[in-house]
Amino acid sequence: MSSFLVKICGLSTPESLEWALSAGADLVGFVHFQKSPRHLPAEAAAALARQVAGRAKTVVLTVDAADDLLDKLVAGIAPDFVQLHGRESPQRVAEARKRAGRPVIKALGIGSAEDVAAARAYAGVADLLLYDAKPPKDASRPGGLGVAFDWSLLEGAPTPFLLSGGLDPTNVHDAVRQVRPFGVDVSSGVESAPGQKDEARIRAFVAAARAASEEGQR
Ligand SMILES: O=C(O)c1ccccc1N[C@@H]1O[C@H](COP(=O)(O)O)[C@@H](O)[C@H]1O
């Protein structure tokens, strides 16, 4: 893995996984959430994880998963990271991390300074934080909505974190230069339709994110 992380999430076919790997993604994510257009059953995610064969780190994304589901996903997929993208409390994050026996990424919805303040309770509990746009109350899912938020809210936010929410090949450069995150995460912005990944957009996203990160190091 490089020091600046690029995560492509919501991969659901061998072909799109190969696009992400050949573009140079550090992390590849598989969504296990039935209401998502990117939902993958555990067996299908396990097959894709085998295809990765060490070329990137694998992430299984869950939403408020109970212990039995967490156990099943970890045993079947053997992901490098578990992403918790629901309303998991800091205590639940700590429990899930111990139970899974692997590092955890905790996603937090950001819509106000209060949300950033609330993130402090997760610092040092999760291995990596992930800031996404706060979803509307009536949203069918808590992420993967292609919605961005006011990045200036993240000044002084707990680290290390991945930035996500509405990123795409056209805005990721500015996002990285402004926010200086530990890495970036994208799903909708590299698709041609919900759940349909697009090779050219994946390549353009990874290239733009890396270029911005390298500029920041000069
Ligand atoms: O991708 C989904 O469908 C999804 C479902 C439930 C929780 C999270 C989900 N996706 C994650 O949301 C963020 C932002 O996505 P986007 O780039 O704005 O579409 C990212 O971490 C996705 O992996």
Automatic annotation (TrEMBL):
Domain of life: Bacteria
Keyword Cytoplasm in record: no
Coiled-coil region(s): none
Pfam families: PRAI
UniProt keyword tRNA processing, yes or no: no
GO MF term set: phosphoribosylanthranilate isomerase activity
InterPro entries: Aldolase_TIM, PRAI_dom, RibuloseP-bd_barrel, TrpF_fam
GO biological process: L-tryptophan biosynthetic process
Pathway(s) where this gene product acts: Amino-acid biosynthesis; L-tryptophan biosynthesis; L-tryptophan from chorismate: step 3/5
Broad class of enzyme this protein falls into: isomerase
Residues in N-(5'phosphoribosyl) anthranilate isomerase (PRAI) domain copies: 6-207
Reactions performed catalytically: N-(5-phospho-beta-D-ribosyl)anthranilate = 1-(2-carboxyphenylamino)-1-deoxy-D-ribulose 5-phosphate
EC identifiers of the protein: 5.3.1.24
NCBIfam families: PRK01222.1-1
Listed PANTHER family: N-(5'-PHOSPHORIBOSYL)ANTHRANILATE ISOMERASE
Similarity comment: Belongs to the TrpF family.
Protein name per the record: N-(5'-phosphoribosyl)anthranilate isomerase
Species: Pleomorphomonas carboxyditropha
Gene: trpF
